[in-house]
Records
---
Amino acid sequence: MSTPSIEQITAALAQVNDPEIKRPITELNMVDSVSVADDGAVAITVLLTVAGCPLKDTINRDVTAAVTAVPGVTGVDLTLGVMTPEQRAGLKDILSNGKAEREIPFAQPGSLTKVYAIASGKGGVGKSSVTVNLALGLAKQGLKVGIVDADIYGHSVPAMLGVADSRPTQVDDLIMPVPTASGVSVISIGMLKPRRDQVVAWRGPMLDRALVQMLSDVFWGDLDVLMLDLPPGTGDVAISLGQHLPNAEVVVVTTPQEAAAEVAERAGTMASMMHQRVIGVVENMSFLTLPDGSTMEVFGSGGGDRVAETLSQRFGYDVKVLGRIPLDPALREGGDAGKPIVESDPTAPAALELAKIAEGLGGRGRGLAGMQLGLTPSAKF
């Protein structure tokens, strides 16, 4: 049996699709090298977009099977590498067919929309509940508010607003955000899935593309405030947000406990690394009011103060604690029922604190500190 040629191996690899992008790995420039020994042994290097790709086993299996099926192949030695930033940029260009990205209106120098990104270091601190209730609190002040549920993997905002089963309307190439009874408009990756229970398992380039789509392909109209519910931590979406919306201001959510505060500091530091301004800290689940009127600090105390103090020292400007939200079963129940507490029970202690925080955000003017002015030097005098 004759030794297989490079062309035969390449043709076999062209039949292997990336499991997420659904296009041939050869077309995506993921095949870095191919060599064939005289005895028919084939050595291949395939580049993953990011290290720790969750579907690398699928790529390994599909590539090995496709090449093994070529007549004359006696063995396959597959090496999985990782793309460089330049190679990832090339992949992004391929996926966009070489076209420039649609303009993100909120990133333009003339935009008057206040952009607030709600971040946390870890999950389970109530970040989405805070986002939704602050948005409704701002809308109660007469502001036009939109929410981007940028928590791609844990998109819970639509359910909290009672629109989990709604789907956006598309007009030509524009997507209309889903309106809610409160007047707040929302878009979420959960609304773009065929089924509500479908799992999203994407890597960096796909996450970036989804964020850009929700910011640029959605017709938001003239918003006063845009809020983004970020995934917890300091991953791909936080980095992409910093690149696409450097003018966004960040609110860090934490609970009082030491472990949550420590990781919340990292989320704030990431925002600063992306040249975004951290405007404050919200401490959630601060205390529980008991039937006799006394309070219990279920998760300890001091977390919000620690985060604010640490970030103030690191950044050289004052980062305040914007509010301390009590542990209130009605807050959780309202989210589960799709009726946020600031509307369903506005006199509840948690609702009053959230309304106070929203009032502070709504009354903030847009200063020039940290704002991208879009000025370019044209000549030297």
---
Amino acid sequence: MKLSTFKKEKWGDRPDGRWVKATGMQTLMANVLPNRTDCEVCCRDTIDATELLKFLEKRNAEHPEYKTTVFHCALLCISRIIKERPYLNRFIQGRRMYERHEISLSFVCKRRFADTAEEALLVVVPKDDTTIDSLSRYIVGDVKETRKSEHSTGGVDKIMDDLAKLPRPILMLVVKVIRILDFWGKLPHDIWETDPNYTTVLASNLGSIKCPSVYHHLNNYGTNSIMITIGTLHKEEMVMEDGHKEIRDVIDVSATLDERIADGFYFARSLKLLKHVFAHPELLDLPLGEPSGFEYK
């Protein structure tokens, strides 16, 4: 899926974002620390997925043709967090703060589970009417189409393949020009509209390859301010609300964020919704545009 294109609403806006007023501290940080990798903050947590697995077992028994996974649920949860916590949908580029026009998620899909298999980059743009059913059906269908081909299927994959064929000096010059154009918000749509580095969240489903969640750096290229890795499901002893201990199905999540877009308090409160939805998976059937009713305390 391509990101939507927009006309600039006013001077200073970009095709992929609206220029918003930053605080004095954010403005100074954008100038003193202009590189995104200089401003990383990493949050890690363990999420109880026991109730979610019960929910998925029932749902997949009713719809075996479109298997909904924990990763699909996590993507919708992340979308809801960003919908209800709009500061997370901001980015800094050209030393200015921008707010995206839409929520966008991207992830990498292996064409085959083999060391030599190529990777494809997929982008999902959830809308207000998106539910877990519609999101899962879209992702499953898109991944199936991608895996039918062993090679690039167009979009950013083809652009990267073409650039990689250039002689090194020319490639260095092209990359420098791209960075300059991006700084001023003049990058051609064909480059950024399918590039995962220009999405709200770049997610990595490490659980699909039986790997735990890990810290993953942000990139100075693009506008992506949030990188999330989701690990494999495993058993772990947890202390329940009444104080007793119980073996539960859990999943580790690691999020790396650009601290210039919001403060740590805002980030910490935002993560609480992820735990809440996993504990109350019926909220996944709620359209994204409808409030969850969760109170951020």
---
Amino acid sequence: MNWDDVRIFLAVARAGQLLAAARTLGINHATVGRRISALEESLRTQLLIRKTSGCDLTPEGEVFLHAAERMEAEWAAAQANIGQVDASLAGTVRIGAPDGFGVSFLAPRLGALIARHPALKIQLVPVPRAFSVSQREADIAITLERPEQGRLVSSKLTDYSLGLYASRGYLEKNGVPDTVEALTSHRMIGYVEDLLFTASLNFTNEVMRGLEASFEISSATGQTEAVRSGAGIGILHTYIARQHPELQQVLPDVKIRRAYWIVFHESARNLARVRATAEFLQEIVNEERGIFG
């Protein structure tokens, strides 16, 4: 069995497609297909079901994936032990993050990580959904809750707060509510409830049970833009809202607390590129922790 074939299998299993894996590895997709076939022949079993839409792991492929991940971790540990850590700081790290944190905080700051490690390729996927590191949708996931199950490594990145905000123009036209109950006479902006990917995003009931939004948007960045436009009052991340001087906090005593967690699969613990990226994320958050209060 050839280690390079195993490495290619891992890329395909994580990407779910031969072509996507080939792009990540920087080789021809036909070569990827041949190497997978060679691996299957050496193991005398089928690891992948190849379809026009992508690749699925067979039951044998699932079993081999866990073994391959252990091999990868041992290889990374061996490199580190013989002083080749810098050499392994190459390749791709995909970060899945909530859209507000990903767009407003990570995107402007990740360039410094690339400058520090030029052989590293970062893929930032900031969308309003949850990511599964167990299923290799991301190498590192920023989550709103600490995972309870799976072979995962997690640590708290930071606590953060949210509050009620409106544009100054909206408040000039519609007045400033002085009680939570007064919000019922205002236009509220909130999440599309049936698209919430975690119950912790159901902020509205935390402010006042039964308070309904007249304008629902399924992303934090979309809500911010709607509030900035004067469409109504919304519950926004304070570290995002403070970037926009046209926004004014409403009922400042109403605060919602949440936390971001950094999560990766335990098999990636000894992968230098994943470890360095995780440490960088914690570093930049620590440097600016004051903005999250």
